[in-house]
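#struct-pred
JK: can someone run the complex with 4-nitrophenyl beta-D-glucopyranoside? inputs below
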Amino acid sequence: MVRAGGTLLGPMKNLTRRRFGKTLAGAAAAVAAGASLPRIALAQLAKAGLLRFPDNFVWGCSTAAYQVEGAVNEDGRKPSVWDTFSHTPGKTFQGETGDVADDSYHLYKEDVKLLKNLGVGGYRFSISWSRVFPDGTGQPNEKGLAYYQRVVDELLKNNIAPYITLFHWDLPQALPGGWQSRDTSKAFADYAAYIAKHLSDRVGHFFTINEFTCFTDLGYKTGRFAPGLKLPDGEVNQIRHNAVLAHGLAVEAIRANGKSGTQVGLAENATVYVPVIEDQKQIEAARRATREENAPFLTALMEGKYTDGYLQREGANAPKVEAGDMKIIGNPLDFVGLNVYTPEYVRADSSAAGYIVEKRQTSYPRMASDWLYIGPEVIYWAVRNVSDIWRPKALYITENGCSADDVVTANGRIEDTDRVMYLRNHLTHLHRAASESYPIKGYFLWSLMDNYEWADGYSKRFGLHYVDFKTQTRTPKLSAEWYREVVSRNAVE
Ligand code: PNW
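RT: done, structure tokens with the ligand placed:
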């Protein structure tokens, strides 16, 4: 591609937007039929390097409330477990908190401009539950809701569709017992009902919950995330159960209170199993592993039951299930959202399970976060395994992206070629899934901008925009420029 000053030359850019045949064959047929194609377009098609995504594919970016909003004490918001946890000494990198974060509570219009410049059609963000219900239940706070109405209106004014996550880990501190209590699941459904009632006139897609394992296992078992507890397995399994129950109750609440046609799903980081070798036996092993290893979460809600394997493995520690729970948990979804980062490799084996998860070699490459192993085929297998096992109507990649050691050069640029490499490779593999007709409808990149990376504080940057947290200046990185081209061509090169 010819570039001038970091942007595509004008005429070429327009040409990439034209829809005159998606394939070389299409172009050749058009020429044969006597249609005159501008020379430059032919040259471009002849390059044949472009992997086009389906028409109407949604390109977007993701963020989450506690990671970007700041303004933790404003307009009636009360603390979430993440406020408490991050203010507890020793819990986060250098004691960093989300008190200010990206100050998106005040700068949301600027953030919408960043989205507009990228040309994306969707923005996935989350609602801070304790902004809208400061005590988790009871009286709603109108000022909290009003903020999200402003954000939604600003997005719509710019032709960007809002995709709302209801729970991205910032549980209201005031809820007694947190996720240890079944009442929290009911409180979540009431909050979901309220949001659906007030926003579904303008918001078409809702995600109930983001990444079960991160607030159940990391919050209540390893203690790495809020609320920082280390409970025994039986209690953790009950917490997991309360969480999937909350999801199911929220699906019902959104359907009962939202405008008809409102789409409901979730954003789950199911563990993704990649067959070591792509043959029938290994593919089958990856499928089995996906179903069994995700038993407490995605499998439970796709099937409305816990697998026999999970119940046997947990024995006396298995969750106590009340009559009717599994039906609620298994409420059919309009779509499944997958947050995709890291692969696990699996091979077929003669054990009862039928598979073995490979140990990772110490030389396995990773990005700046110690857990972020790179394996771009993970995104293809995420879509394929989930589709082949459960046949969801639609799938979105609700997160994908990476941390990198971004530096600002002397001339103010951030040349994050490693992030571009990461994204380009993942999108190439996502294209394979689309081209094999899996029902993949969109891709939301994590993240629009650098933000509060939970226990890692501000030390890990995932953004397409570099944020100077002292001045709140947002600067597009090379990856932002690259993503803008992907979006405008609806293709990856
Ligand atoms: C996801 N791990 O979190 C979250 O949904 C985002 O809020 C987060 O910023 C993003 O991915 C990048 O981390 C994860 O330790 C956090 O394996 C940690 C892990 C996985 C996902």
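RT: quick notes.
The chain has a mean pLDDT of 92.
The pocket of 4-nitrophenyl beta-D-glucopyranoside is lined by residues 64, 67, 210-211, 214, 269, 339, 341, 371, 399, 446, 453, 462 (CB under 6 Å).
JK: thanks, will look after standup
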